[in-house]
User: What shape does this take?
Amino acid sequence: MTEQAALTGTAAPGAPRRAHSPAVSAARARRWGAFYYAEQVLRVMKGYGWTIVMYGVGQPVAYLFAMGVGLATLVDTRGAAGFGGVSYLAFIAPALLISAAVMAAANEFTFPVMDGFKWRRVYYGPHASPLTPEQIAAGQIIAVTVRFLLQSAIYFAVVALFGASPSGWGWLSVPVATLAGLSFGLPLMAYAASIKNDKGQFAMVMRFIVMPLFLFSGTFFPLETLPLGVRWVGWISPIWHGTELGRMATYGYQEPPAVTAVHLLFLVALAVAGWILTKRQFAKRMGS
Amino acid sequence: MSGVSNDDSHDHSQRYVISATNLTKKYGDFTAVDDISFHVPAGESFGLLGPNGAGKSTTMRMIGGVSQRTSGSLSIMGLDPEQHGPEVRAHLGVVPQQDNLDEELKVRDNLLVYGRYFGLPMSYLKPRADELLEFAQLTDKAKAKVDALSGGMKRRLTIARSLINEPSILLLDEPTTGLDPQARHILWDRLFRLKEAGTTLILTTHYMDEAEQLCDRLIVVDKGRIMAEGSPASLIREYSTREVLELRFGSERNATVGAELEGIGERLETLPDRVLVYAHDGEAALEQVHARGLHPLTSLVRRSSLEDVFLRLTGRSLVD
Assistant: This one.
């Protein structure tokens, strides 16, 4: 019975069709395709949902205890003046939150892209469906954005529990972290999409780009305390721009509005440039 | 739905679900597909037979709307896949050469997720997925992870996935390559049922038995060009004799014995491991061989196959 249904369902000319027509499929895919692919990526993510939750909860707990509670007992004895008048815990909490999103970006926009094009070729399944390469890229980005929001929200909740977000606007650090993750991640995604063979490039990115950015982006001490020769690392770092915005949100850190605008613009510009390059790479790689 | 501008193609698109005219694909200096034309009416099972690197997969990718042609025209259901990619792909089911299932998802979820790419609602997809699992004989694996499946099961799941949108055209690129004989037969049976149900099948293969089993009509391709076109039976009739006598004299003698066999049958083909004598009556030919005092180590009379057609057309065997 069912088998017969499966066969007649393959649309012999004239046989009744139970799925909507190909024209409807195409119209829906043109409109919603990116979300259809995002749905798939989120289903796969559910498979490692615990990792994401642990990343969101475990990491802040560990860091906030070690740095914000342990190290802070030493740092805070020297007075809070060096950290904008707040405790060391409150000073580093937004930086850790932003850094966690950027580090998640370094994972989500590298290996899965390689998996899509090469290892398990997961992009080529949807590629044969009505979806376009651009929609596949966009879908993955949407799904990862959802992950950033979720992870950052959990992270922020832990920060708030530690009492490290005195301002009522602290929750704004969640979208800021997500933006920082995208502004670092999308150019990286374009790069990952251009790689034909993994010869350890992603490990290099982690070691020689993400780690220095994490250490020298005004994360553990204000950027101004660094010598000028190294300070540029912070200026080009999405972690620094994000952290400065995060600090405004969590404890009302003050800076001129123009500087705030620069932080925002920098993050948005990097994300947009990364998106354009990613789209181009995907179309090129899947359309030849 | 808009037709194609070219009058001739427009005419074709009325009668044919796939129409390729002077289709060419170049990668730099290399011509993968060289000026080929073919037309496939609805419900036909059409094959592209040729060795690896003949340009079969490239042709399939152009039909599937995922590769841009260099020149020529192509129309699928009256649409140009380059202009109307999503619309064309919405008509198709695609079984690629390499499985690209979602290994991290469960078997049934692979079908559901794929159906979503066509914007199909879950109320349709859930019963449809169960039907297809039944069809692919994977019902008891519905909740298994894909990486727990055997090669043959993965292949059947890929075919089930390609049917989720009730495609009117199914593209199969080397559907049974790498499968053991039993798995191949199960798969052929499933494909044959689809064909009976009226689905247009386009398949590439380098297995002559597969082409003979499944194709109503096929083109033999080599180095990007069409060498011959017709039904398996008509190609065999045209390019080969009814029977073939295979003689093995041992690898030392095969090459030299040719001269002594001259005149037996209609044609001789000397291969490194055997000599093929093309004759209407194989047994009679064998008697003539014995009459000349030649005693092969083994002899075998069989019907001509597409392999012989290919050998005749290109001087090479299909699987090398």
Q: What stands out?
A: The two ends of chain A are 43 Å apart (CA to CA). Residues 34-287 of chain A form one domain.
